[in-house]
Each structure stands twice: as C-alpha cells, then as structure tokens.
C-alpha cells in the first residue's frame, strides 16, 4: 500500500484546523459562571429554607430524578423516591430544624456541572425533649438540566463530631 503523503498531510491539516476551530468556538461562548454561581447560591438558600420549614416536596424538588444522596450513617439513596424516603424521616424529626449555608460554589467552564460546599446545623430534641444541635459539612454536585435549571445530582454530608 502506497502512502499518499499529500492526502495524509491535507487530512492532518484539516483535523488540526477543525480542532482549533472547535477550541476557538468554545472560547467564544459567553462565560456564564458568575450567573450560574449566583443561581446555585440562590437555589441552595431556597432549598435550605424548604428544609428548615419541613417542606418535604419542596426539599426533594431540588434533586434530579437520577440523583443520589449519601446520608450520614445510612445507605445510599439512589433516585428521587429513595431520596424522598430519607427526607421524610428528616422532616419528621421531633423538634427538628435543618439549615445550611453555602460557603463555596465552583462552576465548570463548560457550564453544565458545578459543586457547592458549606456547613449545616441540625437541631433536634433528644429523648428527654431537650434541643440538641449537630453541626456538619456537605458537598453537593449540581447539573444544569435541558431547561436551564440547576438540579442536584450528588449530595453527601457528615457531622463534625
């Protein structure tokens, strides 16, 4: 088989140019990271308010249908139905009040994935009815959906003690 160098070189040149054009096109897309960060911070605050007010359906609405939640001391909850069962227990805690504060949001340059980290406080009544507070931290991964809204796809938290 005889190699046709002009054809090979032309093919390589086209491939390189196409790759360069694609990269150039990516750099021409507007950088929406600041707006996406603001949207995620607002969603996280709204989600925390839903948890604090014990609004089960609103709290679960922030998850994508195929999300997973890794609750402390419990098995993985995969999918919205399993996550709803975990959250049903959380909102039913006697004297329970869960809230969190986002400290960091990082949005991928691609604009389709992001994560946020922060700290949470869970207050609940002990066996004697006395309020006890647990503090912890969390990491949440968000994915931009086809409708442009951000939904949680991964959620993990654990207590500081």
End-to-end separation in angstroms reads: 70 Å
Q: Using only CA atoms, what is the Rg?
A: 23 Å
The spatial strand order of the largest sheet comes to 2-1-6-5-4-3
Any idea of the CATH class? Alpha Beta
How much β-strand is present in the residues?
35-45%
Give average pLDDT, whole number.
88
Number of helices: 4
Helix content: 25-40%
Low-pLDDT windows of residues: none
Level-2 CATH architecture:
Roll
Q: How does the helix and strand content classify structurally? A: alpha+beta
Q: What is the helix/strand order? A: HHHEEHEEEE
- When the domains are counted, the total is 1
Q: Using DSSP, what is the number of strands?
A: 6
Main features:
alpha+beta, 4 helices, 161 residues, six-stranded mixed sheet, Nuclear Transport Factor 2, Chain: A
Plain-language structure description:
This protein has 161 residues and is of the alpha+beta class. It has one domain: Nuclear Transport Factor 2, Chain: A (Roll), CATH 3.10.450.50. 38% of the residues lie in helices and 36% in strands. The chain has four helices and six strands; from the N terminus they run αααββαββββ. It has a six-stranded mixed β-sheet, covered by helices on one side. The radius of gyration is 23 Å and the shape is elongated. The chain starts with a helix and ends with a strand. The mean pLDDT is 88.
């Amino acid at each position: 088989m005889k190699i046709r160098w002009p054809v090979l070189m032309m093919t390589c040149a086209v491939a390189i140019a196409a790759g360069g054009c694609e990269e150039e096109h990516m750099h021409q897309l507007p950088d929406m990271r600041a707006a996406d960060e603001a949207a995620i911070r607002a969603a996280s605050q709204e989600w925390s308010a839903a948890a604090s007010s014990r609004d089960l359906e609103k709290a679960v609405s922030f998850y994508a249908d195929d999300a997973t939640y890794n609750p402390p001391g419990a098995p993985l909850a995969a999918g919205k139905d399993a996550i709803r069962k975990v959250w049903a227990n959380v909102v039913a805690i006697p004297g329970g009040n869960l809230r969190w504060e986002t400290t960091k949001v990082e949005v991928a340059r691609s604009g389709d994935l992001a994560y946020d980290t922060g700290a949470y406080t869970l207050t609940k009544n002990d066996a004697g009815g006395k309020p006890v507070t647990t503090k912890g931290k969390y990491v949440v991964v968000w994915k931009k959906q086809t409708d442009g809204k951000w939904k949680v796809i991964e959620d993990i938290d654990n207590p500081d003690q």
